[in-house]
Amino acid sequence: MEAYLVSQSQDIWDATQSMTFVVLPVAEHTTPEIVAQHEANAKAVNFLFFRLGPMDYERVSHLKTAREIWSLLSAHHEGTATIKARLVETYRREYENFVQKPGESIDDLFGRF
């Protein structure tokens, strides 16, 4: 998804990463820079919604900014940094403790690996 958003426009990708963007009422869109930010956010939200399945869409349809949508989806699908670190430790421990069982053939060992 990241590659798709970047390929559309760097501004669109930036909208998913910006933590300072706030959706303002239309009357307050005075500068061209603010209008450009709102357009990039709207495009990013549109691209994200278009690519989501029904379950993910239900999960994020109430959110207003691309950053909120991206954060929720990435936390749901990839996990937080703490969860990722725990998974790495778990997999590392499993790898380090992997040994051949008594009477196990090499083919069975690699099949289990």
UniProtKB/TrEMBL annotation:
PANTHER family: DUF4219 DOMAIN-CONTAINING PROTEIN-RELATED, TRANSMEMBRANE PROTEIN. It holds the Pfam family Retrotran_gag_2. It comes from Paspalum notatum var. saurae. This is Uncharacterized protein.
